[in-house]
Amino acid sequence: MVLVSGTGTNLGALLEASADGRWGAAVVGVVSDRADAPALQRARDAGLPAEVVALRDHPDRAAWDAALTEAVVALAPDLVVLAGFMRLVGPTFLGRLGGRVVNTHPALSPSFPGTRAPADALAYGVKVTGATVLLVDEGVDTGAVLAQVTVPVHDDDDVEALHERIKSAERPLLVDVVGRMARGGWSTSPDNPRKVLLP
Ligand code: GAR
User: Fold this and answer.
1) How far apart are CA 120 and CA 45, in angstroms?
2) Are 124 and 112 in contact (CB under 8 A)?
3) Which band of pLDDT confidence, cut at 50, 70 and 90, is reported for residue 107?
4) Distance CA 154, CA 164 (A)
5) 196 lines ligand 1 (CB under 6 A)
6) What is the pTM assigned to this prediction?
7) N or C, fewer C-beta in 10 Å, the chain?
8) What is the Å distance from ligand 1's center to 83 Cα?
């Protein structure tokens, strides 16, 4: 199950991987908080359920959180992947699904949390950034790290060029992590709950 807000190139990579039975996972549905997300069309083209649960269609955040949770739980996913989902999931969502919600973030966590990570990395002047696939907790990009990949920052980068370079590395990382979790599960190191071990 994949949650999206935007273009959906990460969703596209997961859909492509689904076509290969050896990957070990299959996307069962897509939910977006935005009716105009191009990612929704990718889901429909793949013949998958694609639902919109927009915050503004609900009286408050708690009602949206409950509706989002129901839309996801209805498809009984083993894993929930936030692939460019630009809102924080709420306590109801994490209460039902926590521990198996994965996010992909375009920075090397814990640096540059939030929705403007490539811009924040450029503004800071770092020479290396990257992407992080992490478990979701109640914080903003604070969950346990599953995998990371580094990406160089070039002197002449603008936000778009840097983000595209990050996304080129991010997509195969996300596909790899989701496949490994689906095939072999995951565990936490007994001496450090933040250290997640993948097969
Ligand atoms: C990805 O780079 C993802 O890491 C980022 O949005 C992009 C979505 O691209 N997510 C965040 O910044 C969440 N904090 P896509 O729609 O082409 O998959």
Assistant:
1) 34
2) yes
3) very high
4) 12
5) no
6) 0.97
7) C
8) 6
174 and 146 Cβ atoms separated by less than 8 Å: no
Atom of ligand 1 nearest to the CA of 83: 18
What's the 190 CA to ligand 1 centre distance in angstroms? Answer: 31
CA dist 129 and 144 (Å) reads 18
* Span 48-55, average pLDDT: 98
Q: Place 50 in a pLDDT band, splitting at 50, 70 and 90.
A: very high
Cβ neighbours around 149 below 10 Å, total: 17
Long-range contacts at 34-37 (CB < 8 A, ≥ 24 apart): 34/5, 34/6, 37/4, 37/5, 37/6, 37/7, 37/8
- What is the structure's pLDDT at 19? 93
- Single out the residue of 133, 182, 149 nearest to residue 18, CA to CA: 182
The closest of 76, 74, 158, 176 to 119, measured between CA atoms, is 158
- Give the residue, by CA position, lying nearest to ligand 1 atom 7: 84
- Closest CA to ligand 1's atom 4: 105
Catalytic site includes residue 105: yes
Amino acid identity, position 115: T
CA of 15 to the centre of ligand 1 (A): 16
The residue from 58, 105, 154, 163 that is catalytic is 105
